[in-house]
Amino acid sequence: MNLILLDPADLTDDHHAWVRDPRRLRHLREVHRARPGDELTLGVSGGSIGRGRLVSLDEDGARFALDALDQAPPAALDIELVLALPRPRMLARSLEHVTALGVKRITLLHTRRVEKSYWQSPELSAEKIHQHLVLGLEQARDTVMPEVELETHFKPFVEDRLATRLKVRRGLLAHPGMQAACPRGLTSPATLVVGPEGGFIPYEVEALLAAGCQGIHLGSRILRVETAVIALLARLG
Amino acid sequence: MNLILLDPADLTDDHHAWVRDPRRLRHLREVHRARPGDELTLGVSGGSIGRGRLVSLDEDGARFALDALDQAPPAALDIELVLALPRPRMLARSLEHVTALGVKRITLLHTRRVEKSYWQSPELSAEKIHQHLVLGLEQARDTVMPEVELETHFKPFVEDRLATRLKVRRGLLAHPGMQAACPRGLTSPATLVVGPEGGFIPYEVEALLAAGCQGIHLGSRILRVETAVIALLARLG
């Protein structure tokens, strides 16, 4: 928690915040080992960041006196991610990684090689997803929550919604064996599409190319989805 | 296991291999759902890779008939990694990530903010480290085992051994607040130095710069070590 992310409801007035939930209190106690008087970085969800002083930390919660919260959060990465739904534990970690890297729109997509049982995972509840996004934001000192969409049907998503998006954004399909090496340091908006462990099937590759994606690869090494997503975003960003 | 990594002892002659250890047999049965006649990718530790046909899979083990193993493994990344020893679970995952990305020399270093208890972790046994390296190689279809060194004393390592290495390699210290942005697509050998969660202390930063490192950063977002290492290697590689 490099930033304490405040919900607007945590603000008692313009200069005071009151944190009550057990997770943040435990983190303040056990990781920050915070004591009254300590200065910490805080930010309001969707808003700006700044410094605050811990006034009290007891069974009543943590109370902060805030300086002007007048710094902008770090710039977002203008790369949207379309990711074949990973297995639950990898999903949890990947949501944190890509949120920390600054992605603001994440689409979780069903594909042939996604196990159907993954869609029943408790990790896909709105609450669990929100928790992982918060962890990613707190890590990177960001306040702007990514939007996460679940797309359980490949064809209508790719043919309609993705194809429409790609009229104004560059589409990049990361898939082993594609012709172009992953570009470096994009300067225009893009949508990155990453398949499941085992990859997209040929029909899916064709549909994604037909929807306007350009095929790219990261070399001859086959990476786990979790590793590949970070490596691709780092090279593109 | 995108490649079945054979120990030279697994070869019964130039054209036959016999795999007997429970981990690989379970993987062949449960993940590959392999049946006699299936073609799989195999490679000899430290050597070349190729295709083989599963001849039998039973309580006796898995027997393969090998075609010529005549393909070179993927090119190594000419970036050595010096990493402050992470907590055990993150160490395990990071060893797999960086091995899959092609790093061939990994130095795990003690620094002020590394918890001393991490050095007692069973994850640091030679056997456990070897297991994670094998998983990374199998993932990336590589056969060349990275070398892992443990350096429990910061000062003599940095002042002597690192400074000597940096006479022939570019040293890059990744640390928030450094002046230069992380370079892209290095074309010469480099050694990348990454700190612990919480970062290097000022004395350590000074010692690393004095040993010949250039300070670099990945932007204003603070990333977990696990994420940062992958992002740095992807951008440098």
TrEMBL record, chains A, B:
One protein family per Pfam: Methyltrans_RNA
GO-annotated molecular function: rRNA (uridine-N3-)-methyltransferase activity
Protein name (Swiss-Prot/TrEMBL): Ribosomal RNA small subunit methyltransferase E
PANTHER family: 16S RRNA (URACIL(1498)-N(3))-METHYLTRANSFERASE (PTHR30027:SF3), RIBOSOMAL RNA SMALL SUBUNIT METHYLTRANSFERASE E (PTHR30027)
Similarity comment text for this entry: Belongs to the RNA methyltransferase RsmE family.
Location of this chain's protein in the cell: Cytoplasm
GO biological process, one term: rRNA base methylation
GO cellular component: cytoplasm
Catalytic activity: uridine(1498) in 16S rRNA + S-adenosyl-L-methionine = N(3)-methyluridine(1498) in 16S rRNA + S-adenosyl-L-homocysteine + H(+)
UniProt keyword annotation of Cytoplasm present: yes
The organism of origin for this protein: Onishia taeanensis
UniProt function note: Specifically methylates the N3 position of the uracil ring of uridine 1498 (m3U1498) in 16S rRNA. Acts on the fully assembled 30S ribosomal subunit.
Span of domain Ribosomal RNA small subunit methyltransferase E methyltransferase: 75-236
Keywords: Cytoplasm, Methyltransferase, rRNA processing, S-adenosyl-L-methionine, Transferase
Enzyme Commission (EC) number: 2.1.1.193
